[in-house]
Amino acid sequence: MTTTDLAHRNLPAILQDAGNSATFAAEEFFEAKLSNEHTRRAYGRYVRNFLERCQANGLALREITPGDAARFIRDLQPSVSTQKVALAALRRFFDLLVTRHVVMLNPFASVRGPRQPADAGRTPEITVAQARQLLDSIDATRLAGLRDRAVIGTLTYTGARVGALSQLRLQDLRDYGEHRTLCFREKGGKRREIPVRIDLDGWLADYLAAGRLVDEPKDSPLLRPLDNRNLARLVPRTLSPQLIRDLLKRRLRDAGLPKILTPHSFRVMVVTDLLTQDVPMEDVQYLAGHSHPSTTQVYDRRAHKITRNIVERISV
Whole-angstrom Cα distance, residue 262 to residue 163? Predict the structure, then answer.
């Protein structure tokens, strides 16, 4: 269910059959309640899939039971993250339907979410040595190398999410005289400023100069794609998260590093490295942009390293 769908009232028949209150609630939910486009798209997919499933089974909106809700979530296995997003989306959606008197009870209210241990983070970690090897392997004599070094350097020294990195504008590189910061737009509309480390500051300056971005409008993208017809020129648009992933894959391959690594791997490295140095958890939590320390702990791989060290001592 997208904004375009709503604009044209392209709603599942099960909603339309429930009356104007149901269609009003659907539009309110996706147009007014969800400000983030990515959240709107993800939530819309699960809401539409569930409603179409109920419709195919001949259920009216008021006839949906907690059993129907639980079976839908259970069928999304084995992905815990998918189940959690779907459950969050449908709980919020049906909460609004209850508020608007479309249904009496929220069938998802009693559905238990999947359990995931706090230490079950699956993102592969790039080590400090691998990050250095990757950065050292980049040929910074050309614009492509300067751009890629700036991108990977920002991942390395801020632990930023790839989506927040992609959204950076020239004005987000803020000059305070003695130092500069990067202002990231995070999930939920939050903003946070991260000081720019000295070597990263130099890499960003080199990239801006080579790309002739110093005098560009301040609200234009900071990180940009290259012009395929002229690799010495940047295209005046945002470097998308997918393009960032693609350039990282190329650089990992060229450096002889594991292709399993992703932009998120740098967040794991940053959190683990700082906690290893006894940096307070609340400081690392802020740097990572996490709302709760339990989320930061998911990225802490110190215990995993201990396990590997023990395995290496097996006398075979």
Answer: 13
Sign of CA dihedral 65, 66, 68, 69: positive
User: Are 54 and 168 within one domain?
Assistant: no
- Residue 45 domain-assigned (yes or no): yes
pLDDT tens-digit readout, 199-242: 999 999 999 999 999 999 999 999 999 999 998 999 999 999 99
∠ CA 85-89-90 to the nearest 5 degrees?
120
State how beta strands 226-227 and 230-234 pair. Answer: antiparallel
pLDDT (tens digit, 9 = 90+) per residue, 59-79? 999 999 999 999 999 998 777
Q: Can you tell me the distance from the alpha carbon of 174 to that of 100, in angstroms, rounded to the nearest whole number?
A: 45
CATH number at residue 189: 1.10.443.10
What is the rounded distance in angstroms from the CA atom of residue 213 to the CA atom of residue 236? 10
CB 196 within 8 A of CB 176: no
Q: Helix H segments across the chain?
A: 3-7, 13-17, 20-27, 37-56, 66-74, 80-99, 128-136, 143-158, 162-166, 198-210, 241-255, 265-276, 281-288, 293-298, 302-312
Strands 226-227 and 180-185, how do they pair?
unpaired
Give the residue from 99, 115, 150 where a domain finishes. 99
Kindly state whether residues 55 and 148 are assigned to the same domain: no
What is 44-94 written as a DSSP string?
HHHHHHHHHHHHHTT--GGG--HHHHHHHHHTTTT-HHHHHHHHHHHHHHH
